[in-house]
Amino acid sequence: MKIPFNIPPKSSNEEKYISQAIANKKLSGEGSFNKKCVEWFNKSLPTLMTVITPSCTSALEMAMVLAEIGPGDEVILPSFTFTSTANVVALYGAIPVFVDIDPRTLNIDPQAIAKAVTPRTKVIMPVHYAGIGCEMDKIMEIAQKHNIWVVEDAAQGIFASYKGKALGTWGHMAAFSFHETKNIVCGEGGALTINDPRLVARAEIVRDKGTNRQQFLNGQVDKYTWQDKGSSYLLSELAAAFLLSQLEEGEQITAKRQAAWKKYYDGLADLEAAGHLKRMHVPAEAKGNAHIFYIVLNSVTEKASLWSYLKEAGIQSTTHYVPLHSAPAGIKYGRVSGSMSVTDDLANRMLRLPMFADLSSEDVTLVLEKIHAFFKAK
Fold first, then answer.
1. Which of helix, strand or coil describes residue 165?
2. Are 289 and 305 in contact (CB under 8 A)?
3. 238 with 21: CB under 8 angstroms?
4. What is the DSSP track for 189-227?
5. 274-282: long-range contacts at Cβ-Cβ below 8 A with a sequence spacing of 24 or more?
6. Could you please report the per-residue DSSP string of 280-291?
7. Which of 122, 283, 328, 346 has a CA between 20 and 30 Å from the CA of residue 98?
8. pLDDT tens digits, the chain, 378 residues: what are they?
9. Angle, in degrees to the nearest 10, between helices 250-267 and 237-248
10. Dist. CA 101–CA 120, nearest whole Å
11. What are phi and psi of 368, to 5 degrees?
12. Exposure pattern of 313-332 as b/e (b: 16+ CB <10 Å)?
């Protein structure tokens, strides 16, 4: 491919920090780099507590343990999301309840959430698709009314905000991803942020395989023992060293993506005005992070044709999620609440364009030229 869909971002101190981590002879999950990543999150978001995890999936799993979900409980989430969002619910025997999305943003629809609440609803999991914040004020109102936990799936949400408040700080908990396809990366990795003081003490135990090891390290007890459910939720020091370098330069990385995003947005305005496509929408109250740039075509056939056309030109574009409510596991483990018409429609007509920090202006220009040529030839 002349222009790949994604290339992981680079930052200045990755190799230096990894070498320091090796020299420190502390490679497990509680070294100095892990602690510096925690400090960055606690200060920058801010949040009460952060656990730097091996993946966003493991962060979501830890959140489910803290929310104490189990058989018979229900968790409301969008069908238009990655499998992890629903899989962590099914793992603990609870039921993923799939609801529709807002056609403007492809984020979960608060009205659909309100209609889906039952006495069994334990958690709401909004997903900040493309780094565009969900309507968190409305979602928190619903949650408070019914005494429901809110866990933000902010896998794509770092350096983004809604109504001036950072994504990941609205809910009781939030999970971030540092997979190599994300804005900030360390290969595989994630973070769980905790914003409710009721969860902090237990979180220290759950993250350490269910033991009170942290109390032992702090000198509060003379030995540590198994206290609660838990697992190994700490990221290795080598990955944390890489991650710290990325976090330190995260604003610069994000700014480079935003420049490419704006060039796409401005460059496709004429095609939207002509009725050929719709550009992704960012509400005025949301500040995005340019994680994704997608367009919505007028038909499934036209989407497939443009996808193929760009591929022949050496440009790697891609679709996104197959709606979970229609997947075999979604049918087996979950249920649907309300209509899924928006999800079913837009999931089939959207196409994501190449987006990464080092995507050059010239490359964006080439993508735009090819898209225009496609429609001119029709």
1. strand
2. no
3. yes
4. -EEEEE--HHHHHHHHHHTBTTB-HHHHHTTSSSS--B-
5. 274/375, 276/375, 280/130, 280/132, 281/104, 281/105, 282/105, 282/132
6. ----TTEE----
7. 283
8. 899 999 999 999 999 999 999 999 999 988 999 999 999 999 999 999 999 999 999 999 999 999 999 999 999 999 999 999 999 999 999 999 999 999 999 999 999 999 999 999 999 999 999 999 999 999 999 999 999 999 999 999 999 999 999 999 999 999 999 999 999 999 999 999 999 999 999 999 999 999 988 888 888 888 899 999 999 999 999 999 999 999 999 999 999 999 999 999 999 999 999 999 999 999 999 999 999 999 999 999 999 999 999 999 999 999 999 999 999 999 999 999 999 999 999 999 999 999 999 999 999 999 999 999 999 997
9. 60
10. 22
11. -60, -40
12. bebbbeebbebbbebeebee
Tokens of 260: 């490419």
Q: Which pair of structure tokens corresponds to residue 300?
A: 């499934």
Amino acid at 166: A
Beta bridge partners of 95: 74
Question: Tokens 């994630």 — which residue?
Answer: 190
How many CB atoms are closer than 10 A to CB 289? Answer: 27
> Position of tokens 């229900």?
74
Q: Would you list the DSSP string of 97-163?
A: EEE-B-TTTSSB-HHHHHHH--TTEEEE--B-GGGPPP-HHHHHHHHHHHT-EEEEE-TT-TT-EET
Question: Euclidean distance between the first and final Cα of the chain, in Å?
Answer: 24
Tokens at 312, concatenated: 């022949």
